[in-house]
Amino acid sequence: MPPIVELIRVSKVYQANGNAVHALREIDLALEKGTFTVIVGRSGCGKSTLLNLAGAVDLPTSGEVRIEQQSTQSLRDAELSRLRRTRIGFVFQFFNLMPTLTVEENVELPLLLDGIKTSGKTRERIAELLGMVGLEKKGRSFPHQLSGGEMQRVAIARALVHEPSIVIADEPTGNLDSANAETVLRLLQHISETSHTVLMATHSREAAEFASHIFSMRDGQLSVS
Ligand SMILES: Nc1ncnc2c1ncn2[C@@H]1O[C@H](COP(=O)(O)OP(=O)(O)O)[C@@H](O)[C@H]1O
Ligand SMILES: [Mg+2]
Fold this sequence. Notes:
Elements: E1 5-16, E2 19-31, E3 36-40, H1 47-54, E4 62-67, E5 70-71, H2 77-87, E6 88-91, H3 103-113, H4 120-132, H5 148-160, E7 166-170, H6 178-193, E8 197-202, H7 205-208, E9 213-218, E10 221-224
Parallel strand pairs: 3-8, 3-9, 6-7, 7-8
Antiparallel strand pairs: 1-2, 1-4, 4-5, 9-10
Helix pairs in contact: 3-4, 3-5, 4-5, 5-6
Residues 14, 16, 21, 23, 41, 43-49 line the site of adenosine-5'-diphosphate (ADP).
């Protein structure tokens, strides 16, 4: 089977105040279905840049990014945003929940944004996901009533609601204590075992140990860890 995500000699150069920043240098990476890959490295080494390219948030300066065999450079903006909305789930360091929406509503949001109306079936899906992340009793709560670990579990449920094939998590444990971090990492592990492809960035070696494939990043280059 071809990889779910493939980076082929990918470079990314940002222009900042007339200076070129080489964030990624000729990266080759293939993510197979059902794997949990971690990119570990210090702040500024290029992790978020790599995740943004793998998640079709941004395009490479050179080289090719293929998501489910589609080259992201070949897609128009509308097609790229559709790819992001339907095939990819994102989890962020600061959770990015909507404060005025309940937990259930936050999890439902990607469906609504994709034009899928609330139904018995969508409610069932949301309940099932909240059960999976251990928050079946918190559906009617608001984000400010939750702990950081609980908020991140809501974000994970939200990332999965539209049944993406790829889950991208950028420093998902960066704001959590070690017990909550472990819960989130075990959930990501579980998600990869249910045939999603998980790609995570972290600066923590300890967090990286939960992955099936670990790469170190330094100055925009990857090495097997
Ligand atoms: N939009 C941007 N414009 C200019 N430089 C950027 C931009 N985004 C990131 N960079 C630079 O690219 C490098 C890699 O950044 P990033 O991918 O965010 O690293 P990490 O996630 O590992 O901290 C850093 O030097 C950063 O300052
Ligand atoms: Mg980053």
